[in-house]
Amino acid sequence: MNAPAPSKPPPHQRTQQLARLFTTLTILAILAMEAWQVWLDYRQEFHRAEVSATNVTGAAAEHARDAIRQADALLYDLIEQVEHDGFERLDTARMHRLMKRQQQFLPQLHELFIYDKDGNCVVTDREVGGQPMNNADREYFRYHRDDPDHRVHISQVIRSRFTGDLVIPISRRIEDRNGQFAGVAVATLEVAYFNRFYETFDLGDRGIIVLAEQNGTILVRHPFDPYATSRSLAKTHIVKDLLPEAPAGVTVARSSLDDVERLFSYRQLQDYPLLVETGISTQSIAAPWLNQVARSCLVVVVVIAGLVVFAATLVRQMEQGALAEEELRLAHETLEQLALEDALTGLANRRRLDAVLPIEASRARRLGTPLGIVMLDIDYFKRYNDHYGHLAGDQCIRAVAQVLAGFARRPGDLAARYGGEEMTLLLPNADPEDTQRIAEQIRQAVRALEIPHSGSDHGVVTVSLGYHVYMPLPLDNTHEAQLLRAADEALYHAKDAGRDRVHPPAS
Q1: Is the model's pTM score more than 0.85?
Q2: Does 480 participate in catalysis according to the annotation?
């Protein structure tokens, strides 16, 4: 006896299975696309940070090279004069005046000195009042006394014995006619000079800029940290591993001074044994990305939840026969209404505006009545968004939208969100005087809200408005896009004329 053939599942069960499969695949596709987008956004944030850090490093390196090169050139000229005249015939008064004059043109200079072979100060730009001064104990003096190297020498940071300020000594060896050590020429550069330049860069929370010797000894660190001055970076990944392989590059490393993980850009200076590092905290780099991820995840959760609910509802509707069909029709009507309404403001959206405008323009041509179009733009909205945040920006848009909606009073009037912070008001059968009056009332009503706006010259949120009134002529074939363009051009003139005003259409 043959076994009975397996029965097929009822149609509603097959429908449920297909719905579950479709929902699962759709959710997986959404998650995959969102994960890919999150990764791309992450890489984009770090790429922007890499470019920013590299640009800052390049600027800081060029700044340091120029500062040292100018001081070195001055030392070279001073040494040439000393070696030519000799200490015995050196006109110290003239040399002092020369030093004072040169310092006026080089803001990085703190002090200039010429020392003889015993470390006695022969001439300086300072007014020493005849007091003897000997700096034979300084590292730069001992270096040049014991080493015949003719190259410029950059020493560790010291405190000036005149002012107590932190300075970087730049020095060169002076020789007599026999090539023997005769003294040292020194120019000291202000550490504060470099910090003032570094303050012009915004590296976010816990960002740093470091100027160091090639061996890793720190000369300048911004933000200024006296604990870091003269500390060594010799054992760091950049100095120990990367710098010997390439004179410039980018890496992520944990700081040896404060244990903060940063994205570092480094560069070795041309001509001088110095290194510049720029570090941007990875936490500050990732902060905007994490905020975006949180918002995206919320949207994905809402979409997935909506998809699951929609699928469950669809299955239930299919099982309910005629009642389900009626419910589905109502659901479609609801979705159609949502598709024509802006979710943020409750105004008509661009799609609905594009559908209504041709109808109203056709009615105006048929009846020979005017059609007023007002275009509105929130002044300096990007500044508002950047300063107060996106949530406050959304609240601002909603507040302005409520004002605009209050002027769509007659049947046929339509207030719509055109896009971003731009909105539109259609006024059928409104002549130029009526349209201009309504636009001015809207402007005053928005200003009366007194929403604080520190980025505006007025201190409060204002709007600019432009309007156009379509006066149809016989056999008129003006396209609706031209009407919007005319109102938009008037809006442009309102903004160009200073904002917070109503501008009439071009004549």
Answers
A1: no
A2: no
